[in-house]
Amino acid sequence: MLKNGIKNKKMRTGRSLNLILWFTFSVFALSIILIYGVVQNILVHKRYYNQIAENLNVAGNEIVNTIANHDGSAPLSKQIYGIANKHGLQLYVLSEDGASKFPDHTEQDAYPEKTELLKKKLEGCEYKIFSEKSVIAYGDTVMIEGEPYYLYISTPADWMNDSVGNLRLVSILTGLIAVVLAFVASGFVAVLITKPVSEVTERAKELARGNYSLRFRQDYYCAEICELSDALEYARTEISKADQMQKELIANVSHDFKTPLTMIKAYASMIREISGEDRQKRDAHAQIIIDESDRLATLVGDLLDLSKIRAELTPDTGSVFNLSDEVYRIASRFDYLKETNGYHIETEVEDDIYTFASRERIEQVLYNLIGNAVNYTGEDKLVRIRLFNIQNGSRFEVIDTGKGIPPDEIDSIWDRYYRSGKSHQRPVQGSGLGLSIVKNILTVQGCPFGIESEEGKGSCFWVEFSVPEQTEESDHQEKTEKKKKTKHKS
Ligand code: ADP
To answer: 158-192 and 194-208 helices cross at what angle (nearest 10)?
Structure first.
């Protein structure tokens, strides 16, 4: 069914972790490079520009001062071109209409467009530094021999744009390298994460198909995957245990069904064919049929109980009841063994101990535990039943003097669906499910329980009960009515 379930289930689509990793790494690396590139471009551009502007400013001021203070001792053009050359600048002095005063020996001796530009730029300001096409320029107005002129000094800015362009190229190249590196890094991370995840997933699918032999626990690099594989390993052991138990249950239960059925059939045939006329024999054979039917009824009852208790996740009903009375009542059901089989069943029960639980279920627990003690006690046939107050509640103990339980079996004994020691002579009929029922009931009821056992000396099965929060009216009445309880030994 599970197999078909997997097969028939449509594969859910989702992005591969590999792709997600690669995409995330690339986006991350590219964003960093982009931010870095943009910031660097802006900063470098600004820095170069400021440097050039400062240079222009210094040269411009020097030239303006030279023009203003010119005394005719040396040619003006020589002086101002000396300054311009010193700073590596181009210099123009232009009249209002664009005619060139300096340089005065150029092929083109008019620059109207420059004059227009300067007019526009200098509107409302004393001087101006501005960038234009591939140059950065300084503009000002000067008076030469009483005439107004425009001063235009410029320096090429190509190298600055080239540098910024280079930086951009470097950023793009770095980005490409980052994408490739992200690819490599994501591949590396994928090996560490996705590969083990895929491996674990494959094994989990195998597990779902019923292959319990695969091991999940392995040393992975990633702690979370180790945790996942541990959890799956735990699931695997539990599922295989449950599967094993189920198989055992079916095998043993069918065996347990088969034996009494065979006997019932055999004795019924004997009554019909042989002992029908012989009243004594017929009664004996009929009794066997009745006993075997009882055995079958017990088995079926226990199986039903177990499945019913397993379905109860929380105790549905519960009441406050007198546990001491309950223990006495159940212990007295074994009284017949004292007379018929020579058992010594001792009860040490403190009076009027109350608890809140499902009375019916607790009765079943006490009966199963006492029944087991009777079945497995030693030669002396001694069974001690105790109930006493402890801090925050009470403790029930049933102690036998039997072979005890080996330490390696103590934990699994509650989960065993089979009867060990089938040859064991038992006065109380058991189905092999008694302790499973006990465990399930006590887990649902929330009562701590356990075994203390020493091989060769015997076992003590114990259960702890809580004190009820409020005692019901009816139980108070019950309490006052029954005062007879004292320590009672047999
Ligand atoms: P059953 O007694 O019918 O076989 P249980 O579930 O009650 O089934 O017990 C399971 C197994 O636990 C028993 O077969 C027996 O091996 C062991 N066991 C239970 N009670 C005792 C006990 N008091 N002393 C020793 N072994 C016990």
So the answer is: 30
